[in-house]
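Can't paste images in this forum, so I'm doing it all in text. The chain is below; anyone willing to post the predicted C-alpha cells underneath?
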Amino acid sequence: MAINAITVLLCDDHPMVRNGFKQLLESVPDIQVVSEATTGEEAYQSYRKQAVDLIILDISMPGMGGLAAARHILEHDPKAKIMMLTMHDSQTYVSRALKLGAKGYLTKMAEPDELIKAVRFIDRGRSYIEASLAHDLVVSNMSGESDPIDILSPREFEVFSALADGCSVKEISSLLFLSPKTVGVHRTNVMKKMHTDNLADITRLAIRHGVITV
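Text version of the structure:
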C-alpha cells in the first residue's frame, strides 16, 4: 500500500461488480481497498473492527441496505465518510442519503474517472454528487416541489421500502432486527403519513418516486 493511500471499505453484493470497482479504484496509487462487504450488516461490523478513510455503499442489497448501514455507521462514528454508489438515481434516494450524512452520491452509470475523482474529493473533506443528480435537486428546490416521502423518518422509510418490495411484517422484522409489533407500528405510521389504504398504494407510490423499479 502506498504511503498515505486513501483506505476504502467497498460494499456491494455482486462479486463481479465489486471486483470491477476494486480494480478501478486500485488502478491509481493513492487509493487502496482494504476491506470488502456484501451486505450492510457486514459493512457496519467491518467498519467497527477496522476504520477506513472512506466507505462506499451500494443501496439495494440483501438484508440491511446501504441507507440503513450508513445510518448505523454514522451513529457509531459521526465523522465517518460515506459515499453511495448505486443504480438508483431518484431524488428520493439522493435526498435521503445526504440527510443521513453521506458525503457523496454516484450512480453506477457514471464515467469510471468520476469514481476516482469522487473518492479524492470526499477524502479531502468535500462532498461530491453526480452532476445530473445535483442539478435535479437544485431544480426541484427552486421550483418548490416537495417529495411526500420526505416526511418519513429513516426507520419508517426502511419499512416503507420493504413493504413496497413485497416483504411481509415477519420478513421486515427479521430484516431490520425489529419485533413484529414495532414493524406493525411503523407500518401503520407509514400508511397514515402517506395517506394510503393498502399495500398496493404503497407500491405505486414507491414506483412513482423511484424507490423501487419494475
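The chain has a mean pLDDT of 91. Strands lie at 6-11, 31-37, 54-57, 82-86, 104-107, 128-129.
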